[in-house]
Specification:
Structural class: mainly alpha
Order of helices and strands: HHHHHHHH
Largest sheet: none
Distance between the termini: 55 Å
Shape: globular
Helix content: 40-55%
Strand content: under 5%
Length: 194
């Protein structure tokens, strides 16, 4: 971690004509037992961080946490939440509702820390943890539309070939198995004329 922070600081300072540290404190790590309740507690804490930092008002809006990733459609994140809740066969909708209820009830603000307001927690309880359909769809579309290349195969291949230098030594994936959902079937866009 020290090396990563040091290299990033050097890079950032050089590109922004500045000097000095970017980080407030040294990196601290915490060793957590692999017990499900301890891991669930840590996941709830981490997924509440964007709320406590004032970055978003709903953790589903923050795609850089496990819960936001799962709401956005990330299968690995969804499987992680299923395993935390010890749910192997439940639908994602049931897992999401249970985790959302836990997230809001454990992340409520107190006199010593920022968090969800009592009104937000009550609203989630009234909805039994379920995201309203419009909100779920909005998060899914936002997640899909950030960082995509849309166009024909020739357009995508050409763009990747011209910009391969931006990605360093890594292999740029052209995953044909990644398909956008049928937005017309979801009721977002009208079907294309036949």
């Amino acid at each position: 971690m020290k090396s990563l922070k040091q290299r990033f600081s050097t890079f950032y300072n050089r590109n922004n004509q500045r000097s000095g540290t970017l980080w407030e404190e040294r990196f601290k790590n915490i060793i957590v037992e692999g017990d499900e309740s301890a891991l669930l507690t840590m996941a709830l804490y981490i997924d509440s961080n964007p709320i406590r930092a004032g970055l978003v008002t709903d953790p589903a809006e923050y795609r850089f946490c496990g819960y936001g990733e799962a709401v956005g459609g990330g299968e690995t994140a969804r499987e992680g939440l299923r395993s935390l809740l010890l749910r192997q066969s439940n639908s994602w909708k049931a897992v999401q509702a249970e985790y959302r209820r836990l997230l809001y009830s454990n992340g409520e603000e107190s006199s010593t820390r920022k968090g969800f307001t009592r009104e937000q927690t009550s609203e989630v309880e009234a909805q039994e943890g379920h995201l309203p359909a419009g909100a779920a769809l909005r998060h899914r579309i936002r997640y899909l539309s950030e960082g995509l290349i849309l166009g024909s195969r020739a357009f995508i291949d050409g763009w990747l070939d011209r910009n391969r230098w931006r990605f360093g030594e890594r292999t740029v994936s052209r995953r044909p198995d990644r398909r956008l959902p049928d937005m017309a079937a979801l009721g977002v866009f009208p079907p294309a004329p036949a």
